[in-house]
Amino acid sequence: xxxxxxxxxxxxxxxxxxxxxxxxxxxxxxxxxxxxxxxxxxxxxxxxxxxxxxxxxxxxxxxxxxxxxxxxxxxxxxxxxxxxxxxxxxxxxxxxxxxxxxxxxxxxxxxxxxxxxxxxxxxxxxxxxxxxxxxxxxxxxxxxxxxxxxxxxxxxxxxxxxxxxxxxxxxxxxxxxxxxxxxxxxxxxxxxxxxxxxxxxxxxxxxxxxxxxxxxxxxxxxxxxxxxxxxxxxxxxxxxxxxxxxxxxxxxxxxxxxxxxxxxxxxxxxxxxxxxxxxxxxxxxxxxxxxxxxxxxxxxxxxxxxxxxxxxxxxxxxxxxxxxxxxxxxxxxxxxxxxxxxxxxxxxxxxxxxxxxxxxxxxxxxxxxxxxxxxxxxxxxxxxxxxxxxxxxxxxxxxxxxxxxxxxxxxxxxxxxxxxxxxxxxxxxxxxxxxxxxxxxxxxxxxxxxxxxxxxxxxxxxxxxxxxxxxxxxxxxxxxx
Length: 481
Ligand code: XMP
Hints:
Blueprint: E1 20-22, E2 38-41, E3 44-46, E4 50-52, H1 61-69, E5 73-76, H2 82-95, H3 112-122, E6 126-130, E7 136-141, H4 142-146, H5 154-157, H6 171-181, E8 185-189, E9 195-200, H7 201-209, E10 224-227, H8 232-238, E11 244-247, H9 255-267, E12 271-277, H10 280-290, E13 295-298, H11 308-312, H12 318-332, E14 338-341, H13 347-355, E15 360-363, H14 365-368, E16 377-380, E17 383-389, H15 394-403, E18 418-422, H16 427-445, H17 450-456, E19 459-461
Parallel strand pairs: 4-5, 4-15, 5-10, 10-11, 11-12, 12-13, 13-14, 14-15
Antiparallel strand pairs: 1-19, 2-3, 6-7, 8-9, 16-17, 17-18
Helix pairs in contact: 1-2, 10-12, 13-16
């Protein structure tokens, strides 16, 4: 563990990523054998330490699905209505479940036109047809809808001869059954013929494809959701679907915030991550008052689109915040995972955050420019750019007031800005590059896994001139080779 007391650093020096360098260490394995398995929160394991930030230009379902398939996790933003946020969470949970429990069904008395609309709205290609007691009567698929008149009733267009499965079926058996009957959807029924779930070929076949995905006990992708500490209703409703809640407030160390979070923790039974915190006292105080904290999100004012520090001269740089949080947890004897949040630009920053005690890194800037982010794209001068905006920016605040009937702005000033970032393509490619960078860095540091990085890595303060390039290398010309 990099301990502040062992580094010759003044206690008052609030440092950041560029102030340190990782010292090389002895290793007896190759970088590709290194494990990046870690924890997001007390009960959620990850295979890579990457978390996408709850920002409305970063994380909705598509980004969260990509993060989870690659072994990380996404936190769905809260700049929307409760219903919209729940829908995003559900999309992730439905993306690859083995047995979908929360099945979208239709009544036989609806019209084919209505069935088509429901399918389009939810992006699905088939609906089980059930009566008022949820008894399975048939199934209507995209094909049935395409070739029937929109005015006729579902009962006239549906297939009634449905192949079904029982709850104990295994993924392998379900694949066999679907192949045998050449079907893509397998309704699961109980002994009375009532619909209790749905298996889709797409979901079952994807399970083998993403071996390192972050999944829950039912094989569904995991996802977290952001909530305001003052929105108990949202927290309770979301907790029925999301795997974890992230208390999303710029300054957690506030009596009202702590008391409101206490109520949330008492009312939900999923992991609750608190933040943002930036001081040792903040962590000591919050963790002791709240009893059941499952994770800490730390760093204040370092985010790429934050203006907090410029405007208020208040904040705690992410790396410094990690070190202080770790000191506090050691003092408390609590092993709570720390998420380093804000200002992360590359794999090296993540390695340093972990070396100082973090378990994962939350990123907005890194993912906002990717295809999967829910942000608008624009062409400027022949190149594509995507928008990234702070959740405290004027436009994000305006949207919050418009979409969330309970939103209250406690501050009268915006603390974020907007930026157009170069389009980076698919998030999976960005994730793979970060993974490769992280493993290379850990190889240099002589550590085989995240635990060793947290406990064995050595860092040093670095002088500004240490890695300065020769002036003629600053603007290298085109290679002739
Ligand atoms: P990066 O640098 O990865 O940081 O984009 C993401 C984190 O920035 C924080 N955030 C803000 N901080 N004003 C702030 O002071 C804002 O408007 C704002 N929006 C996001 C947040 O912690 C996020 O995870």
